[in-house]
UniProtKB/TrEMBL annotation:
Boundaries of every Oxidoreductase molybdopterin-binding domain copy: 96-230
Domain of life from the UniProt record: Bacteria
Pfam families the record matches: Oxidored_molyb
SUPFAM superfamilies for this protein: Oxidoreductase molybdopterin-binding domain (SSF56524)
Matching PANTHER family: BLL0505 PROTEIN, PROTEIN-METHIONINE-SULFOXIDE REDUCTASE
Name of the protein in question: DMSO/TMAO reductase YedYZ molybdopterin-dependent catalytic subunit
Length: 256
């Protein structure tokens, strides 16, 4: 993380977030569910904690579940199989030659294989995916937190958004998505290669897809081919930050 260049404001916000990521203090739920902690915290301390939470709300963790909660089937949605010979050839080779390019406002552009990605620090999380179309599914995701990839590439001053490029097209345009640095550096924002402790199925975005747990399903870009740090979303797609944002009234910030 030391080579991440961030605006000062952001560094302060992160310092607050770190304090709040202590296991028992990570969510209001945790306080309610943990009797020893409830006894230890005075009312004043709770109020202080609540105000800190409000200030750093976007750093808070999304709820995590247990293996007993995992949905029997994780319904695929949107593209279930990218068209074209190139993707089919990658799939036939078990994605051995798949690369994810890390480009844009970075000090060290990267071209990462899946082996490179698996050699980085990994995180597993059991979370609920909420699609705007009105269905949800709980699954266990494993992959590298995006912040480690961005630290390896070294964000340059001026980087404000991360754009996610995908291998599939819907109609006449490539699927893409984007987020700001708060979500890009969030500990649960992960480039996932595994669902429910198995290799990610093609229908769910093989070989690599984004998990961005504080936002709705359409932000979770599947079939990742590129990660690009940019100063502005102008000139990318129609400029609204994502395939659906460009076409329908889906919000760019789709907080849950
Ligand atoms: N590349 C790509 N990513 C995508 C989509 C898509 O069609 N293409 N659909 C989005 C939508 S609307 C949802 S709800 C989720 C679905 O993920 P799933 O197929 O694993 O359920 O992927 C999102 N990411
Ligand atoms: Mo969705």
């Amino acid at each position: 993380m030391s080579d991440l260049i961030l605006p000062r404001r952001r560094l302060i916000a992160r310092a607050g977030g770190l304090a709040l990521s202590l296991p028992l203090l990570s969510a209001c739920d945790a306080i309610n569910e943990a009797p020893p902690m409830r006894k230890i915290l005075s009312l004043g301390e709770k109020m202080h904690f609540a105000s800190q939470r409000a200030l750093t709300d976007r750093d808070a963790l999304a709820r995590e579940f247990t293996r007993a909660d995992i949905s029997p089937v994780f319904r695929p949605n949107g593209t279930r199989l990218p068209a074209g010979k190139a993707y089919a050839a990658h799939a036939a080779r078990g994605f051995a030659d798949w690369r994810v390019a890390v480009t844009g406002l970075v000090a060290r552009p990267l071209s990462l294989s899946l082996a490179d990605i698996r050699a980085m620090p990994q995180r597993s999380q059991i979370t609920r995916h909420d699609c705007v179309e009105g269905w949800s599914a709980i699954g266990e995701w494993t992959g590298v937190p995006l912040r480690h990839v961005l630290a390896a590439a070294g964000l340059k001053d001026g980087a404000r958004y991360i754009v996610f490029r995908c291998a599939d097209r819907i109609g006449d345009a490539d699927y893409y998505e984007s987020c700001d640095l708060v979500d890009a550096l969030h500990p649960q924002t992960v480039l996932a290669w595994s669902l429910n402790r198995r290799l990610l199925p093609i229908a769910n975005g093989a070989p690599l897809r984004l998990r961005i747990e504080r936002q709705l399903g359409y932000k979770h870009a599947k079939y990742l081919t590129g990660i690009e740090a940019v100063a502005s979303l102008d000139g990318i797609g129609a400029g609204k930050g994502g395939y659906w944002e460009d076409r329908v009234d889906y919000e760019w910030y789709a907080g849950i």
